[in-house]
Amino acid sequence: MNTKEDLRQTLLDLDNRGYKAYKDLLGEYQFPDFTLIIDYVQGDPFAAPSKFRVRVPAAIASFPPQLYQTPSREIALRDYLTRQFDRAAHELSSRRGTGKSGMIAITRVGQEVLDRTSAYLVQVAHAAAPKPKGGNPALERAKPAPASDEKGVEIRFFVGLPARGRNILGRQAAAMLCEDIPAIVDRALKYDSLDPDACRRHVETVEDADALRGQLGDRSLVAFVPNGAILPRQSGVNDRPLKSETAVPFQSPPSLEVELTRPNGGAIAGMGIPEGITLIVGGGYHGKSTLLKAIERGVYNHIPGDGREFVVTNPAAVKIRAEDGRSVSGVDISPFINQLPQEKSTRQFSTENASGSTSQAANIMEALETLLLGDTPTAPVLLVDEDTAATNFMIRDRRMQALIAKEREPITPFIDKIRQLYTDYSVSTILVMGGSGDYFDVADTVIAMDNFQPLELTEKAKAIAAEYTTGRTAEGGQQFGSLTPRIPLPESLDPSRGRRDVRVKVRDIDEVTFGTEDVDLSAVEQLVSKDQLRAIAEAMVYARQHYMDGRQTLTQILDRVMADIAEKGLDAITQFPQGDLALFRRFELAAAINRVRTLEMK
Fold this sequence. Notes:
The chain is an alpha+beta fold and 602 residues long. The chain is built from 14 helices and 28 strands.
């Protein structure tokens, strides 16, 4: 294996040569404390940056095994190391030349703790003295440390190799790779250089949140919001907690207060939202949507100090909304919509331009298909906010029923199906509803938000419903209806644009380019990172290449893709190691596939 000094000399020799000569760097280099691996070299200084890895052996990294002894702790420690590397890289790297020259960076992280490919804990042998050249590099890779549970660290990051114009700046590159990167490793990837209390707190916070989430089912809860939580955010584009005297700590109403336990933090009290149908009501700007947004994000763990560290939600909770203009392919929306004009079928409903009501119906039916028809059926929790729902889909009051007879109205409103969803399929719903008291008739729990504090008003709502009857006629029939599996036709999903190479691209957190199609995911509101979209794009290609054969249903394909990832990690779906992927749920993968406009289903 080449050494640090070999790398330095190569870079000095490349000085002032054309940029493509950087390709000579590909390979592995042994530094005193770590191995540097260069997987990919950019074609010019303005292109996507080069992809690097470092591997630090356990004897050098020295992280105590108790910090990664469970899956929760390991993901948390990997997240912590990603953040420490990011901080050190920002402090030590500097611009050197044109384009991305001088950049040393790792994937961007937010408030959520995700299972990312940016950092891994691996068994790496201690750095050895350089061996003579001419050996087999494959045999010189790090080997598992025998009779030891201690693990080293692998970090995947990006480097903008420096240039002036398109000529290599060799001396600056040598300083980056041979001085800056070792300094970053020293600061970020060695336990003795870090704050042990902050590291432990990060790991324990994530483990505690996972433990709380794991208790929800046994307590017949779909969500838990602890006392003292800070739910408001700084702004719509800043997800950090509101730092102001106006940020009101959450306090559960006594009737909904439950106590759960944490393996590290002990008992914790807060509001438990029970299974069934829950309404969140209240005046405008009193915190209804803020509470629902916190519950939405409760499917993820959060970093210490976020304010929502112990807000936890059923992992199968999905946000449902209207989505005017989306494409729909072969979805059975007949439980909600029937008897369309011109006798258009709704049992295999397809459109390139769905209305608010048909898109919301399709979104619900796709979620049910994705989560209830797989190898391990999981009843979802539907999260709905009236502000983003189609009004005619949510309610049809007595006066409208009198004016427009049922045989003239194709839509069966959600109010007449919400109870059947729970009784037939155990699907709970949390609904923000400030404009219609008709839902009092079907609610199991009513929570009123008053100045960002919850009040439990179920009995009062039921009394009002009894005193002021709606007089409306239920239109939903006796049962919800059946769920129909669909088979995607492989020729309708082409990521290669008709060429030999595959084309996928991610733009922010709301759009994936898949072949020739720009897939709009702006209405899939629980995606929180571009890394998730990159992983989804890779998974779509992987599913198309390995499992879409015109015979397997969408849920069978999802089962197989998610099983491969569970067994082998996200590296299973990529051709070479990538440091900017994050784990997603099967729901979001299905949502992306369902929104490809060329998709055809049978």
